[in-house]
Write a sequence for this structure.
């Protein structure tokens, strides 16, 4: 029997953390090996909140890449309470594609996040006018709301009112994790779409918590019950599948930060993201929907052309390394030491 293989338009990653400095240099090749473009998250410390910082960051990213012509870093600005209409205008002129809304304290490095989004309505109106997107980490931070309900509550408290007030603002509801989010996206107009990560499609909270806490599955929004994972799978392959696209939320942290008495949120999946998406779609007999999810829906929503290369994957098992070493420290990837079903065929020498 011949090996199963699939060729698709080269994907993009519509939500990626690459950090800075030596970590950036170590992790960026994993993404450029797979993706044509990536939306770069601005949650550095301090956050990337002005145009010059974003352009400098883009420069650092691009100078860390060997094949610069085959990858594009799409830059975002971190929305803060101080973001002005002028910043939005400058961002537009500089080719920044989106602003990122982190509710203050919602996740890793979100201390500078927005305290009350409704105070920023004029800024959002300017984004709507100029066609800049708003990318949303959709969780409330109200301490009274259970961590497993924070996304669902965010829809009612924030998303629905924002959509009412700024109806033509293009919004990406990022890394969605719940059945409620899937149905909200499916029933929304074409100004709203969502990204879905490989780990939220693959795992439920039992995978994270039964038999011992697994810190490398801990991310925000937190992984939910099986019924939500099933709803995500249905969403990305169902009738409204064109409203969902790939955003890995690959978020590298050093091992000691994850394996700690207060482990931080973030899953490092960049080395195997495309392979995992392929495995997920294959498992549910939906490989025919893979390319739209990874390579077509995203550019369409952003108003960009699809990539002009193809990539090929073969169904051949691959053992994920136990760790990657950076400056004598370790980063543990998702599924470290375990077998995955698919491999991307490299057309370059960069083999991990
Ligand atoms: C991200 C990080 O580490 O920067 N962590 C995560 O759990 N997803 C931040 C984020 O996107 O929420
Ligand atoms: Zn993220």
């Amino acid at each position: 029997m011949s090996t199963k293989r699939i060729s698709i338009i080269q994907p993009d990653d519509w939500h990626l953390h690459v950090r800075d400095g030596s970590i950036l240099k170590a992790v960026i090749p994993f993404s450029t090996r797979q993706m044509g473009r990536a939306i770069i998250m601005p949650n550095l410390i301090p956050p990337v909140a002005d145009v010059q910082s974003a352009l400098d960051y883009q420069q650092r990213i691009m100078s860390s890449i060997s094949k610069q012509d085959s990858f594009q870093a799409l830059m975002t600005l971190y929305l803060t309470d101080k973001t002005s209409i002028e910043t939005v205008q400058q961002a537009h002129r500089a080719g920044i594609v989106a602003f990122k809304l982190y509710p203050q304290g919602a996740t890793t490095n979100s201390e500078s996040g927005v305290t009350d989004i409704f105070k920023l309505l004029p800024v959002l109106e300017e984004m709507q006018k100029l066609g800049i997107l708003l990318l949303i980490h959709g969780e409330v931070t109200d301490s009274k709301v259970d961590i497993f309900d924070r996304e669902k509550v965010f829809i009612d408290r924030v998303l629905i009112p924002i959509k009412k007030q700024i109806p033509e603002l293009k919004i990406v509801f990022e890394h969605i994790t719940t059945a409620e989010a899937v149905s909200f996206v499916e029933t929304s107009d074409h100004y709203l779409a969502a990204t879905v990560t490989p780990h939220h499609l693959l795992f439920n909270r039992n995978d994270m918590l039964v038999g011992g806490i697994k810190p490398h599955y801990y991310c925000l929004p937190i992984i939910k019950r099986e019924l939500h994972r099933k709803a995500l799978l249905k969403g990305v392959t169902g009738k409204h599948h064109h409203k969902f696209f790939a955003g890995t939320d690959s978020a590298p942290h050093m091992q000691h930060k994850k394996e700690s008495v207060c482990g931080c949120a973030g899953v490092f999946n960049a080395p195997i993201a495309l392979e995992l998406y392929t495995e997920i779609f294959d498992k549910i007999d939906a490989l025919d929907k893979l390319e739209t999810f990874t390579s077509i829906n995203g550019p369409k929503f952003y108003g960009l052309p699809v990539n002009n290369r193809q990539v090929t994957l073969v169904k051949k098992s691959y053992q994920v390394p136990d760790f990657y070493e950076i400056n004598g420290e370790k980063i543990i990837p998702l599924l470290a030491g375990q077998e995955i079903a698919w491999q991307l065929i490299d057309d370059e020498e960069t083999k991990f």
